[in-house]
Amino acid sequence: MAQFRDFVTLQRGFDLTKTEMRDGHVPVVGSTSIIGFHDVWKVAPPGVVTGRSGSLGTVQYINEPFWPHNTSLWVKDFKGNDPHFVYYRLQGFDFGRFNAGAGVPTLNRNHLDTLELDIPPLQTQRRIASILSAYDELIENNQRRIRILEDMARSLYREWFVHFRYPGHENERSEVSSLRPSVPLVDSPLGQIPQGWEVKSLGALMLEQIGGGWGKDVPDEKHTEPAWVIRGTDIPDARTCQVANVPHRFHSISNLRSRCLQAWDIIFEVSGGSKGQPVGRTLLVAPQLLSALGDDAVICASFCKRICPDMVGYGSELLYLSFLEGYESGEIEQFQVQSTGISNFKWTEYLEKIARVIPPESVRMRFRDLVKPMLSQAATLGLQTANLRRTRDLLLPRLLSGQIALATDTPPIYDEDEFKRMVEKGTQAWAGVPDSAAWVETLRGSKE
Question: Which end of the chain has a smaller Cβ tally under 10 Å, C or N?
Answer without folding.
Answer: N
